[in-house]
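Recap slide: Bicyclomycin resistance protein, sequence and predicted structure.
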Amino acid sequence: MRTKPKWLFPVLALLPILGLYCCIRVYPIIETLRLSLYQWNIISRRKPFVGFANFIELTSDPLFLEAIFNTTVIAFSIVVITIPVGLALAALINSRQGLRRSGVYEASVFLPHVVSLVPAAMAWKWIFDARLGPLNALIGLVGIPAQSWLFDPVLSLLCLVILCSWQAIGYAVLIFLVGLKNVPDALYEAARLDGASSLQAFRYVAVPLLKPVILYVSVITLISSYNIYAQAFVLASDVQGAPGHLVRVLVLDMLENSFRNYRVGYAAAEAVILLAIVLILTGAQFRLFRDRSRA
């Protein structure tokens, strides 16, 4: 009797999951690529094929270029803040025995990451409020005049970076803690015997071993930062709830073109560019970390 190959059962077990993944992930990407080549209007029956006309028009669209610039600045700022701060907090929690044994500190740091985006943004909007917010009252104690945080283009961009970094740091701390707990204590003891301080042991022992973890956190943070929308929408909305556009980000521009201007093909072209940017930056991060590991 012929026996069945060992790989047959795992493949059959994974087929439903792969089918679901293709339906909710692969098919939308393929459909977006197709729509980007059409002048696809929701309210019009005529949807002509325009090739790369949508992409050519994007190169001269000031709103799109502004959205790309703002999103890139925000994404890289969040990564630059999240990685060192998250690593420092994780090292602090891991270095103290009392903090390491208690999950209260880990939970308190991770809590901002699990809070819903809209309530968190509303809370920070109150903090940044020019008249009633506690931030202006706090900086007034040291002689700094009150600022219109959400009505200035540069300051509103800074507010968005602060809010998104506050939410991203908790996840980074949790992942870094997992990596630090897997570093053998014998390596730290060997470094101390060689005369290394605690900071030097962390720099030359823990950090090199955490490079795969740092790569993972940086990639996930960069991808999620390029997809921010709710935070920018809430911070820029006025008192009556009407959407504002003081900080235009890429996803907000895509949704506006799709559902307000009914230019689905044009918004699909923006989504394709966003996908290309994320893929290029992710590949660059992998290449950078691989070259450093070889060095």
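The chain has 14 helices and no strands.
The domain at 43-294 is CATH 1.10.3720.10 (MetI-like fold).
(End of recap.)
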